Hints:
The chain is α+β, with helices and mostly antiparallel strands. The chain has two domains: about 10-180 and about 640-675, no CATH class; about 340-640, no CATH class. Strands 1-10-11-9-8-7 form a six-stranded mixed β-sheet. Strands 2-3-14 form a three-stranded mixed β-sheet, sandwiched between helices. β15 and β16 (about 655-660) form a beta hairpin. The longest helix is centred in the middle third of the chain and has 26 residues, at about 440-465. The two termini are about 25 Å apart. Residues about 5-30 have low confidence and may be disordered. The site of zinc ion has 6 residues, from α20.
Amino acid sequence: MKKIIVLFVSLTAMAGCLGKEKTAKENMNKQEFNYVADQFADLQILRYRVQGFETLSLKQKQLLYHLSEAALTGRDILYDQNNRYNLPVRRLIEAVYLNYQGDRKSEPFQALETYLKRIWFANGIHHHYGQDKFNPGFSPEFLAHCIGRIHANQLPLRPGQTADQLMTEIFPVIFDPAVMAKKTVQSGRQDLILASSNNYYAGGITQKEAEDFYAKMMDPNNATPVSYGLNSRLVKEEDGTITEKVWKVGGLYTQAIEKIVAELEKALPYTENDKQKAVIEKLIDYYKTGDLQTFDEYAILWVEDTASEVDFVNGFTETYGDPLGIKASWESTVNFINKEATKRTKVISDNAQWFEDHSPIDKRFKKKEVKGVSAKVITVSMLGGDCYPATPIGINLPNADWIRRDHGSKSVTIENITEAYDRASQGNGFDEEFVWSDEEQSAIRKYGFITDNLHTDLHECLGHGSGIILPGVDPNALKAYSSTLEETRADLFGLYYLADPKVTELGLTPNAEAYKAEYYKYMMNGLMTQLVRIERGKDIEESHMRNRQLIARWAYEKGKDANTVSFEKKNGKTYIRINNYPQLRKLFGTLLAEVQRIKSEGDFKAGQQLVEDYAVKVDRPLHTEVLERYARLNLSPYKGFVNPVMKEIKNTAGEVTDVILDYTEGYAEQMLRYSKDYSFLPAYN
Ligand code: ZN
């Protein structure tokens, strides 16, 4: 629950302005490195640069190399977790794409290519953000025609299955909008598990059955519970019994997990110190046993290793994809520290206790002693699983509340990803279209980049780690609303402190007015511009988007009488105006206190009400207007990344003498290579 995804507007907003201030030299640098790799549907694919890689030691590079191989190796796991037909559909469409002999410029083939590119991006047949199944844009007849020309050994057939039988089975999944319509349904009155078509639960198990299954495992008196159900599929067998199929060596996904373990083992000789070695060994042990106690031991070793320069995430980590917030998707990042930029986050973490003590929440919910907030800025060198191609700009782990309480958490800001977003989206006209006046635009120009980074730092380093859950409160009490409310809490913590004189005193912002840039962008985004990511007629599903609208709508409604924030019209267009910034800060503080209370007390009803009242429903006329204005700008609302290609250089004796990065690989090229070299799972699991 601790991943921050890019706040859409901030990057486009700062883009419009930074562009004008760039020097000629920087513009030249931009041309030398090609940040944009591809653009299609609602997506733009970027490249990120791994600054400083060349200056690492050979040993560190080799460590990064093997961790990177492990990061790519788990790719198919995520496909299968997202939907049980994702692997056969991807392999089928790839086979057509590679073997098609007709006109590749024809309309149906172009549609098929776009469909495949969207599947690669989403790691499946549903939109990565909106959760809706893709409309393929070509006909079943066209696909059947293509399949008819492919040799059967190229098709993802079940044992004994014919091509015709494959089509009968799989075409409704591709073409019928009513079949598996949504990946994850996060709210509503229906059975969330039955309504979701992801693969965390199977055999027709109901939400009630799954909740009961895990409720039985919870012991409210256990202060250090394992993350029940984190690494398994819950299956209802034909006789009605319910069992967990654990993802481990010898269990579900063993073919891929064995390969991950093999790469982790190859990484061991290159570790920087014994602590780091112990982290990787424990992770291997966990993959081999699937034991969640071992996973916690691993998480503790990992969070306590703050001395190593190279670091990674590899495993079943975030639970956004499960409506019950229990089961984790597989992901990986591989990275090393950015020492210069880490000085900023060090100031924040050094003052963690001050921030906790002065937070506007009830004393009963505060941490008496803030433990080990280790914050750093990192450079990623490989992304995998649920961090690829859509990538977070910050990560805060581990997720288990008691580990965070007793051992602290590691918080990172991924600055080479932020940098790529920034560079790729310069001068796109977004600000000019949506920001109220020159005054706000100029504030964003001056302070947008600084305050946006600082908001991310505060969110990650302090926000998620602050506060406590009262003894005896079930950490899963907020159920389907927990992700949204947790992000809300962390965002509010950051927003509240951005305007505090303390951050200026610490030298984190240049003056006491700078925070206004981020406040403006946040409100504009939450009330209006993030809606460009929602299709007409749809509601908001994704946790981070919900959290932003929750905060912005709530503050707007509660400040209405005092005219704190208003909607204004100019030339028939709607704008946000903030009329009283200090008052808005107070509102953020009030809401932070309430959301903390909800988490600390496990007040499900109040949490549900907040989310359903403010976070989900979309203002239809405003949505339509925003979509139309945005469409005229010709921008992509979602962005993701291709990885660099990491290559070992060997001498004639076969010894590795260097590891180098190549940035020239294209998007489709990379995806096809991964499908060829890192496809370890059978089509059906
Ligand atoms: Zn977060």
